[in-house]
Amino acid sequence: MFFSYDTPDHRNLLDQTRQGVIGRPLDRPDGPLKVAGVATYSAEYQRPECAEGVLVCATIAQGRVTCIDTDAALAMPGVLGVFSDKAMLRRPAQGGADKAPVQDVACVEYFGQPVALVVATTFEQATHAAKVLRVEYEPGGEVPHDPEAATSEPAQDPEVLGDLDAAMASAAHSVDLAITTEGHASAALEPHVSIAEWRDDALTIWGSYQMVGHNVKELADALRIAPDRVRIRSAYVGGGFGSKLGISHDALAAAIAARALGRPVRVVLTRQQVFDTIMRRSETRQRLRLAADTGGRLIGLGHEAWVSNLPDENFAEPVTQATAFLYGGDNRHLAVNVARISRLTAGSVRAPGEAVGMQVLEAGMDELAEKIGLDPIVLRKRNLPATLPGKGIPYSSRMLSEALDTGARRFGWDKRKPRPRMQRDGEWWIGMGVASAARVNMMQPAAALVRLEADGMVRVETDQTDIGTGSYAILGQIAGEMLGTPIERIDVALGDSALPMGAGSGGSFGATSTGSAVFRACEAIRDELAHRLGVPTDALELKDGIASGGGKSAPITQLLKGETLERTGRIKPGKTEQDYSQASYGAFFCEVAVNAFTGETRIRRMLGVFGFGRVLNEKTARSQCLGGMVWGIGAALTEELAFDLRDGRLVNHDLAEYHVPVHADIPDLDVVLLDERDAPASPLQAKGVGELGICGAAGAVANAIYNACGVRPRSFPITLDKLLAELPDPLEGET
Amino acid sequence: MFRAPPARFVVNGAEFDYAGDPRRTLLDFLRYDLALCGTKKGCDHGQCGACTVIVDGKRVNSCLTLAVMQDGCEITTIEGIGTPHHLSALQRAFIKHDGFQCGYCTPGQICSATALLQELRNGWPSIGEPDDDLRERMSGNLCRCGAYSNIIMAIREVIEEPAA
Question: Where is the 2Fe-2S ferredoxin-type domain (chain B) (predicted)?
Answer without folding.
Answer: 5-81
